[in-house]
Amino acid sequence: GYGSWTISSPTTDSDGTTGAVILDNVGTVIEGLGPQLTKINIACTAQWGLLVRGAASAVKNLKVQTVTGGSVTWGAGIEPNPVSGSAESCVFDNVHITQLAGTMTNGFCVGPMNTGNPDIAQTKFVHCESTLCLTGAAYLVGNNTAANILDTTFTDCYASQQKYGVQANGTTLSWYGGCIQWSSYADIYISS
Q1: pLDDT tens track for 85-118
Q2: Which of 41, 42, 60, 176 is the most interior residue, by most CB within 10 Å?
Q3: Contact 126/93 with Cβ under 8 angstroms?
Q4: With the CA atoms of 52, 25, 27 and 103 taken in that order, what torsion angle do they form, in degrees rounded to the nearest 10?
Q5: Strands (E), 67-178
């Protein structure tokens, strides 16, 4: 849809995870009319800005941003509910993440929480943009455990003004085209 939605209180999921927006079901699609026309404003404190928990879900054509009073550790991404443990084949297409005001530590994230052995494979990011994650990563993949976080693909994505452009924590990923710039520590940071 078109417009701006301001989230002033977080949702708490069954496992205690908090998010401004949580998509729990398999095959859920949230689609806007473009990042300049559809905005989710986060004005609360939560672990996640927009969290996908179900497989085969998609987030398209919108902007997620912290505004005054907003603070999130992970801007948008995937972390399956520990009960199902799986969130494969998800897509983020033309989604922009930014810290307009408030705090956004990391932008796009895939399996960062270390909630056991998550199964998160074949995640695709297409034409996504992450800016102003000054103390974290624009794109954070993995959690340094022996999880099944595989085949994450970034196509024509952008990262600007962050500590790490891409941070890979014990996982695999592919990056095609796009741009990573103005990182204060490293454009690409790999840990095991």
Answers
A1: 889 999 999 999 999 999 999 999 999 987 667 8
A2: 42
A3: yes
A4: -20
A5: 71-78, 91-99, 103-110, 119-121, 124-126, 129-142, 148-150, 152-155, 158-169, 173-176
Reported as a pLDDT band with limits 50, 70 and 90, residue 148 is confident
Helix (H) or strand (E) holding 173: strand 173-176
Residue 162 in tokens:
């962050």
Over residues 122-138, mean pLDDT: 97
Which H or E run includes 64? strand 58-66
CA distance 74 to 122: 20
How far is it, in rounded angstroms, from Cα 180 to Cα 106?
15
Residue entry with tokens 């990056």: 175
User: Torsion angle, CA of 28/32/38/43, rounded to 10 degrees?
Assistant: 0
Q: With 70 as the cut, is the pLDDT of residue 150 above it?
A: yes
pTM for the full model? 0.96
The count of other CB atoms within 10 Å of the CB of residue 30 is 18
